[in-house]
Amino acid sequence: MTDTYARTTSTWRNWAGNVTARPARVASPASVDELVDVVLTAAEDGLTVKPVGTGHSFTATAATDGVLIRPDLLTGIREVDRTAMTVTVEAGTPLKRLNAALAREGLSLTNMGDITEQTVAGATSTGTHGTGRDSASISAQIRALELVTADGTVLRCSDSEHPDVFAAARIGLGALGVVTAVTFAVEPVFLLTAREEPMTFDRVTADFEQLVAENEHFEFYWFPHTGNCNTKRNNRSAGPLAPPGRVGGWIEDELLSNGLFQVACSVGRAVPGTIPAIAKLSSRALSARTYTDIPHKVFTSPRRVRFVEMEYALPREAAVEALRELRAMVDRSPLRVSFPVEVRTAPADDIALSTASGRDSAYIAVHLYRGTPYGAYFTAVERIMTGYAGRPHWGKIHTRDAGYLAGAYPRFGEFTAVRDRLDPGRLFANDYLRRVLGD
Predict the structure, then answer these.
(1) Rounded CA separation 165/421 (Å)
(2) pLDDT digits 0-9 by tens, 84-99
(3) How far, in Å, CA of 171 to CA of 136, rounded?
């Protein structure tokens, strides 16, 4: 056993605290060669292997009782290619560090999600996305991947090199190997103007298609137990740079969206009967504002209030009907929902297990404050979403299995065939993957 390994009796927990695991040992390889050694040694010892990032998934996709690989030492930018307009980055690099490094180089990703704590590999492997009319998920911006497979091969794939693996591995769920580096398409840094504005539920649902069509990036939050939403429209701007004021930005992003919201969620969890009144206050707390900044400062927001989440991708044309059904369900039920419902969109892409694979999609995400029983709410939501051919986010709570998912994804068999070839002995398997991919 090399010093890359550390035996452990400690319990690993994800960010939300709803998933735990007790790995036999933990490895923190400092190079791809060390990672290859970890993988081969685990196979010899009869142990499974799972890489883990920052644990922002709400599913057990990274849980293992075998070897848990921490990518803390596999970080940093390998190469910036200004001719190809790509950046190659080590898989353990947190998105927030990648965004900051790109900004220093005068570069940016085209689109991104709203949380930046995840590692590059963790975010892409589970299909993390933001919202976009024309620009898709982080994984859709990948131009090449490097991963270590079950036999210790360091495999590089792209549209021109092992294209069948590339079509699957951009959202690989950790099932095909351990991702070690990702090459993203980038572009010169640009400015986005964000326009945040309250809007009624009835108006935003009536005008949904128009709002999506007229804006490069549109999303909204509906506050259950109210008829109120908060909308956000992000569009490219010629400038000038006009970021939120330090005081105003702190009040909106820290005091209201995190500090007071944390208090409100705690009160609601302790006394559920107060939630409708709190929701009415919360939905009116955020005022309209407009600001202009570089992309990662507009797309992303601090998320300090911990929660659990379920999210489904639907055909975009079904989004409004499903959302109205969701509202009717909440209104007629005894449920008390303290977190807003988030709605985003993405164009179709060509990744085998992308939630937007082959169809323009809308995402409906539901959340509850950490520690709040979520079974009844999430079960009712899932029943609605599956009625519209919904595809669950791979890193968020759901109960779907391979039988359902094989019907929801036209290219499901293509992915499992690549898995059978790269990992026939299921070195990278765990209970979650057995459920969603079959065995």
Answers:
(1) 10
(2) 999 999 999 999 999 9
(3) 13
